[in-house]
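Dear Dr. V.,

Thank you for agreeing to look over these. As mentioned in my earlier message, I'm a first-year student in the group and I'm still getting used to reading structure tokens, so any feedback on how I've presented them would be very welcome. I ran two proteins. I've put each sequence directly above its structure. The first is here:
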Amino acid sequence: MSMKNNKHRQSTRLRGYDYSQPGSYFITICVKDRECLFGEIHNGKIILNEIGKIAISSWNNLKSYFPKVNLDTFVVMPNHMHGIVELVADGNVGARLPRPYIAPEQEYRTKLDWVRS
């Protein structure tokens, strides 16, 4: 059974654990429907397209939006990315923020789409 159709996938989250507390977290961010939007694999190496480069830029710019978040290593794959983030004590992270992070490139595209419609 493919991951795409597996609606009964086991959660890897710890029950009752407060993931907003300080600490280092391994995260995975998946593209909707696991579509390969970030690039392709050629000879065992990822070749990023423009969207993949935007994903890297967005990751590297997270600290400017969330100063109490430290970024560690990350990797971009064709349809997802993995990274390690550290939530620093006394940080203002989680649902208390006024709006979700929107990468500047995405914000520009959203405005362009609005103008075109």
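The second protein is here, in the same arrangement:
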Amino acid sequence: MKIVKQFAIVFFILYLGYVIVSLLHLPIPANVVGMVLLLLALIAKIIKREDAEDVSAFIIQYLPVFFIAPSAGIMLYFDLFKKEFLAIFIPLLISIILGFLVAGKVTELLMKKGDE
């Protein structure tokens, strides 16, 4: 019964993300808004960590399954990817590098702040 409660909490917050995006016409995916809401609720201790811990572990455990359909789609359009390789690869590479740099800087700042 505990896992059902946790799923209900996570899905309710995800639904709130969809409502917010629909009402405000935000150009952000609703699931991202929902996860930010979940993060804020956890930080503010509105939701206890124990109220989302088991379901989060369950979702992470089966996360690779969610990549099967996109991988099949990539194989379906392989000729298009081959034709537009540089147009896809260069922005992808730049965004990965920027993501690593930003994550590294944020980690450094948080570690320095934690030492103070």
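From my reading of the second output: The chain has a mean pLDDT of 88. Residues 1-61 form one domain. Does that match how you would interpret it?

Kind regards,
E.
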